[in-house]
C-alpha cells in the first residue's frame, strides 16, 4: 500500500514538475504559424536559422500599362494562400540583376521575423536599399541578422528605379511626377502600418532606415508631409538630403525623351519597357548625375536639406553617420594624376578658393602611386562635395537635427581595412569606402571574410542598431557608451572592441571643418571621370 501511495505521489510530483517546467518556458519559445493573414489575403513563409521569412509580398498594384508613371495603386486581393517564399522580381535597372529577374511588375516587399518571440508586438525596422535610385532590390539586403539578434521585425522593399521611378516631364501624370519611387516607399510604409501587426510587429514603432540612396530616401521621407505618422524613428547611413528642383528634373526628362526619340509623354508611355530601359543610360548617369527626388510639389514641398535646417522635417529620433573614406573608390579616375593635373582639377572645381584648398590638401602630403586618388578622397570626403555625403556638411546636418531632436546620434565607421568584394587595382587601399559598413549589419559574401575583431564589431553594430530600433537610442548594456550628438559626442566604430565616443571637436579637426566652414563652395557638379578628363588625366 505504501509503495502504491509513494508511486502515486511520485507521479503527481512528476506531473507538477513537468507543468512547472512548461510554465517556466519563456513566451519567446512559442512557435508561430508560417501562414499570416494580410489585408489582401493569406501568405505562407519559410523558416531558417531562427528567422521566419515572408518574401515577395505585393504592397501595390503592378505599375504597368496605364499605371506606368502614376502613383502606386492598391494591390489586388487574392484567394487561397499565396506562397511567400521567393522574392518578387527586381525593378527594371541597367546592368543586369544577378539573375534574379527584372520587371516593371516589381512592387514587392519582404518581412523577417524572429521564429521565437514574445507575444508582445515587436519594433520594426523598415529598410530602403541603396543604388543611386537606379539599381538594387530589397531582397539583396538580408534583414535576418538584425531580426534574430534583436527580436525585431525587419521589412525590406523594392521601389521603382531610374526613369521608371524618377522621370519628370509635362503631361506624364497629374500627381507624383519625378517622385514615383518615393511614393512607392510611402505605399510600402502604409502597407506596413496596416499589416505588420499580423507578423508580430508594432505599427506604432517603425524605424525607417537606408544606406546611400536609401539614406537619401530617408531624409526625403522626413521632409515629406504625406509620410508623416508612418514612422517613429530614422536611420541615415551614408546618405545626405539632395534633391532636384522641378526645372532640373524637367530638363533631365526632356533630355531622356529625346534620347528615346519621343517628343512627348504619350510617345514614351506607348514604348515597350525594354526600349525605355535601353534608352536610360544618360538618365541614370553616374554617381553625381543620376536621379534624385524632386522638391517643389506636394510630395516634397521643400528640398529635404532645407526642411531639416529649418525644423520642418519630421522630429523623430535619428541615427546618422558615414564611413571614414566615403568617396575614395570614386576618386580612382585620379590614380594617374600628376601634381599639375591634380592642381588643375582643384582649380576647375573650386575656382578662386583653389589656393586655399591646395594649401590644406597639398599633393606632396599623399606619397603613393595613388596620390591623386587619396588627395581627392580627402578633399571630397571632408568638404561633403558628393551631395553633402560625409564630412563637414554631414556633421552640420547632424547638428541641425540635434538642435531640435535630443535623441540624435552620429557615427563614423572607422575600420581601416574592412572586407571588400570583387577585385581592386594592385596596391590600392580603399579604406572604409562607401558601403563598407553594410556587411557588418546585413550579411553578404563579404561577411565571411571578416577577422575576429571585425566580427566583434559586426555584433556590436547589430546590437547598437537594434537598440535604436527598439528604444530610439543605441545605448546597449555591455558596449561602449554612445552619447547623443547634443552632448557633443559621436561614436567612432572600430574593430576588436575599440569603438569609443569621441568629441565633436575631434571630428572637426580630423576633417578640417574650421576651414571648410569658412569658405563658400558648391557640390561637385560633374562626375569624377569627367573632372579628370577636363584636367587631362590619362585613364589608360
Automatic annotation (TrEMBL):
<protein>
    <recommendedName>
        <fullName>Carboxylic ester hydrolase</fullName>
        <ecNumber>3.1.1.-</ecNumber>
    </recommendedName>
</protein>
<feature type="domain" description="Carboxylesterase type B">
    <location>
        <begin position="34"/>
        <end position="516"/>
    </location>
</feature>
<comment type="similarity">
    <text>Belongs to the type-B carboxylesterase/lipase family.</text>
</comment>
<dbReference type="InterPro" id="IPR019826">
    <property type="entry name" value="Carboxylesterase_B_AS"/>
</dbReference>
<keyword id="KW-0732">Signal</keyword>
<dbReference type="InterPro" id="IPR019819">
    <property type="entry name" value="Carboxylesterase_B_CS"/>
</dbReference>
<dbReference type="InterPro" id="IPR050309">
    <property type="entry name" value="Type-B_Carboxylest/Lipase"/>
</dbReference>
<keyword id="KW-0378">Hydrolase</keyword>
<feature type="signal peptide">
    <location>
        <begin position="1"/>
        <end position="29"/>
    </location>
</feature>
<dbReference type="InterPro" id="IPR029058">
    <property type="entry name" value="AB_hydrolase_fold"/>
</dbReference>
<dbReference type="Pfam" id="PF00135">
    <property type="entry name" value="COesterase"/>
</dbReference>
<dbReference type="InterPro" id="IPR002018">
    <property type="entry name" value="CarbesteraseB"/>
</dbReference>
Amino acid at each position: 500500500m505504501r509503495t502504491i501511495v509513494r508511486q502515486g505521489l511520485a507521479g503527481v510530483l512528476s506531473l507538477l514538475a513537468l507543468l512547472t517546467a512548461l510554465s517556466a518556458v519563456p513566451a519567446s519559445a512559442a512557435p508561430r504559424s508560417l501562414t499570416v493573414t494580410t489585408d489582401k489575403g493569406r501568405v505562407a513563409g519559410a523558416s531558417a536559422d531562427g528567422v521566419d521569412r515572408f518574401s515577395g509580398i505585393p504592397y501595390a498594384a503592378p505599375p504597368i500599362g496605364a499605371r506606368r508613371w502614376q502613383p502606386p495603386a492598391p494591390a489586388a486581393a487574392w484567394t487561397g494562400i499565396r506562397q511567400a517564399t521567393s522574392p518578387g522580381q527586381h525593378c527594371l535597372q541597367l546592368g543586369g540583376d544577378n539573375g534574379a529577374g527584372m520587371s516593371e511588375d516589381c512592387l514587392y516587399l519582404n518581412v523577417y521575423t524572429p521564429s521565437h518571440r514574445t507575444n508582445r508586438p515587436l519594433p520594426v525596422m523598415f529598410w530602403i536599399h541603396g543604388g543611386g535610385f537606379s539599381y538594387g532590390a530589397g531582397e539583396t539586403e538580408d534583414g535576418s541578422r538584425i531580426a534574430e539578434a534583436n527580436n525585431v521585425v525587419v521589412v525590406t522593399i523594392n521601389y521603382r528605379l531610374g526613369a521608371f521611378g524618377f522621370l519628370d516631364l509635362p503631361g506624364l501624370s497629374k500627381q507624383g511626377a519625378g517622385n514615383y519611387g518615393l511614393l512607392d516607399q510611402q505605399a510600402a510604409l502604409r502597407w506596413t502600418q496596416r499589416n505588420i501587426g499580423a507578423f508580430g510587429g508594432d505599427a506604432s514603432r517603425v524605424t525607417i532606415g537606408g544606406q546611400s540612396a536609401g539614406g537619401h530616401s530617408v531624409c526625403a521621407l522626413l521632409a515629406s508631409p504625406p509620410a508623416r505618422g508612418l514612422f517613429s524613428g530614422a536611420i541615415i547611413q551614408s546618405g545626405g538630403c539632395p534633391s532636384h528642383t522641378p526645372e532640373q528634373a524637367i530638363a533631365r526628362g526632356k533630355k531622356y525623351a529625346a534620347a528615346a526619340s519621343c517628343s512627348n509623354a504619350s510617345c514614351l508611355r506607348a514604348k515597350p519597357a525594354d526600349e525605355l530601359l535601353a534608352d536610360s543610360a544618360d538618365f541614370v548617369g553616374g554617381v553625381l548625375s543620376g536621379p534624385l527626388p524632386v522638391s517643389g510639389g506636394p510630395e516634397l514641398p521643400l528640398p529635404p536639406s532645407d526642411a531639416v535646417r529649418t525644423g520642418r522635417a519630421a522630429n523623430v529620433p535619428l541615427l546618422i553617420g558615414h564611413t571614414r573614406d566615403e568617396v575614395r573608390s570614386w576618386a580612382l579616375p585620379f590614380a594617374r594624376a600628376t601634381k599639375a593635373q591634380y592642381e588643375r582639377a582643384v582649380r576647375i572645381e573650386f575656382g578662386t578658393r583653389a589656393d586655399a584648398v591646395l594649401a590644406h590638401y597639398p599633393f606632396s602630403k599623399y606619397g603613393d602611386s595613388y596620390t591623386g586618388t587619396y588627395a581627392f578622397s580627402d578633399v571630397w570626403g571632408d568638404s561633403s562635395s558628393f551631395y553633402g555625403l560625409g564630412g563637414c556638411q554631414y556633421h552640420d546636418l547632424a547638428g541641425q537635427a540635434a538642435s531640435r531632436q535630443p535623441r540624435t546620434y552620429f557615427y563614423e565607421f572607422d575600420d581601416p581595412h574592412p572586407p571588400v568584394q570583387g577585385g581592386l587595382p594592385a596596391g590600392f587601399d580603399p579604406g572604409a569606402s562607401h558601403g563598407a559598413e553594410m556587411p557588418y549589419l546585413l550579411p553578404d559574401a563579404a561577411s565571411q571574410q571578416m577577422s575576429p575583431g571585425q566580427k566583434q564589431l559586426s555584433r556590436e553594430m547589430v546590437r547598437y542598431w537594434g537598440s535604436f530600433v527598439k528604444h530610439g537610442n543605441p545605448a546597449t548594456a555591455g558596449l561602449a557608451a554612445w552619447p547623443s550628438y547634443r552632448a557633443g559626442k559621436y561614436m567612432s566604430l572600430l574593430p576588436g572592441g575599440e569603438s569609443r565616443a569621441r568629441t565633436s571637436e575631434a571630428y572637426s579637426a580630423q576633417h578640417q571643418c574650421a576651414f571648410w566652414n569658412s569658405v563658400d563652395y558648391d557640390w561637385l557638379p560633374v562626375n569624377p571621370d569627367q573632372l579628370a578628363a577636363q584636367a587631362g588625366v590619362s585613364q589608360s
